Structure of DNA-binding transcriptional MerR regulator:
Amino acid sequence: MTQRTYSIGEAARLSGISVRKLRFYSDQGLLPPAGRTASGYRVFTDDELVRIDLIRCLRDAGLGLDAIREVLSKELSLVEALKLRLETLEAEIAAQRRVASALRAALRSPQLTEADLRRFLTMTQLSRTERRNVVERFFEKVSDGINIDRKWIRQMIETSVPELPDEPTPEQCDAWIELSQMLSDPTLVANMRANAEDVWNHHVLDLTAWQQANEAVLARAKEIIARGLAPDSEAGQALARDWLETSARLLKREPDLDFRNWIRGKYALHDARAARYWELVAIMRGQSPDASPNREWAWITAAMRHHLSD
């Protein structure tokens, strides 16, 4: 049965969504038209009207365009999408309670300083969702135009979105201030982009295998550090040799001179702020900065640099 066709104006009238917004959804790939007229105007059918209703419902529920795109492409089920949105709403409610606690603390202060006020304003202006948006924008800038696995991006965002307790300490507020400034620094974005492009545009990574290898080398480094051994010790250099071979295998390379030179450059260009990021996240979660694996990675980096200096 041939479906009836509608102009974009008719589709807007029937759906109650403006022509401008329909064009936007279409340009974003959420609402591909059924076709175009000889003059190039978009044509829609009943199928697109149903799709418009779904998009509107998901937008009303607060889902972002990326999540809606995943639902429409079947990468994310509708149930999963709504669960994510519910979790976000519950987090926002908790954030508002946290803001109330921060304001009560400010009002209890006998002498409110400018530094105190800055911390309190930071807490009142940013919800968890807004903090998440800061992190998402950073990773969008880093990954733009690079063939990075979207699942990896999502995992990085989920594990690194800063969490704060209902009544954050001044140190936790300061950690967020430092972190937000760091993520907006174009030089950090440029350094991370260069590293990501060098890896993702030239290699195909098995994410599960890569994560397992990372966990294994971290555990091994932690055990060696506990024995009081230095990165240039025999145990440290054995770890470096094994990690070099493992990295080459996972990147589908040979641990030859070319690979050694390539990975030597990676360690030489390592941005220390990447490690500081995880320290700040740990502080915001009420943990010691040492709770992050930075100590082990710093030790591994030193071991690798010594090994590669030969």
Remarks:
- The domain at 5-72 is CATH 1.10.1660.10 (Multidrug-efflux Transporter Regulator; Chain: A; Domain 2).
- The beta strands are 5-7, 35-36, 42-45.
- The chain has three domains: 5-72, 78-188, 203-308.
- The CA atoms of residues 158 and 255 lie 33 Å apart.
